[in-house]
Amino acid sequence: MSRFSQTRGLESVDGRGEPTNSWRGRTTPLGPSASTSTINRRPDQIADRPEISGVFSANDQMALGIIKALHERGRRIPEDVSIVGFDDMAESDSFWPPLTTVHQDFDIVGQRSFEILLEQIETGSVRHGFTGVPAHLAVRQSTAR
């Protein structure tokens, strides 16, 4: 098994099949009591954990903060820690190293959001459920192969 965990849905599974991170249960690599807002404020808590070899960040801005904290502690990206962001902001390929990130088309996100809002205004009913938008992984140099 590689040094990276396998991913199954929103739950990360280590080499023994044990859950290591569950978004719904708000369990983070920092322990079950740490919230995602803690990670947002304290990327150094991730950087100080040598057992962490990969981070999937909720957005590219958070990933940049984690990259900075890792760099300040002498940890190499991607040799020591792989970093993946989410949203592919315009500057993501200008980070050092260029950030691997999930790209989604925000024009489509805005269009679908507007269509749903307009439908709710016109019908007076709220649509429940999931509305997906196309996404793809933009692989750059912040992840090991």
Explain the layout of strands and helices.
Elements: E1 6-8, E2 11-13, E3 19-22, H1 36-41, H2 43-47, E4 54-56, H3 60-72, E5 82-87, E6 100-104, H4 106-123, E7 135-138
Parallel strand pairs: 4-5, 5-6
Antiparallel strand pairs: 1-2, 2-3, 6-7
Q: How does this structure look, described?
A:
- There is one protein chain.
- The protein is elongated and about 55 Å long.
- Helices cover 29% and strands 19% of the residues.
- The chain has a domain at 6-104: Response regulator (Rossmann fold), CATH 3.40.50.2300.
- It is built from four helices and seven strands.
- The protein has helices at 36-41, 43-47, 60-72, 106-123; strands at residues 6-8, 11-13, 19-22, 54-56, 82-87, 100-104, 135-138.
- Residues 1-40 have low confidence and may be disordered.
- It has a four-stranded mixed sheet with strand order 4-5-6-7. A three-stranded antiparallel sheet has the order 1-2-3, with no helix packed on it.
- It has 145 residues and is α/β, with parallel strands linked by helices.
* Residue fraction in strands: 15-25%
The CATH class name of the domain at 6-104 reads Alpha Beta
Instruction: Report how far the terminal alpha carbons are from each other.
Output: 13 Å
Uncertain segments are 1-40
Q: Give the quaternary arrangement of the chains.
A: single chain
Shape call = elongated
Query: What is the ordering of alpha helices and beta strands?
Result: EEEHHEHEEHE
Number of helices: 4
What is the radius of gyration?
Answer: 17 Å
CATH architecture of the domain at 6-104: 3-Layer(aba) Sandwich
Q: Give the proportion of residues in helices.
A: 25-40%
Which fold name corresponds to the CATH topology of the domain at 6-104?
Rossmann fold
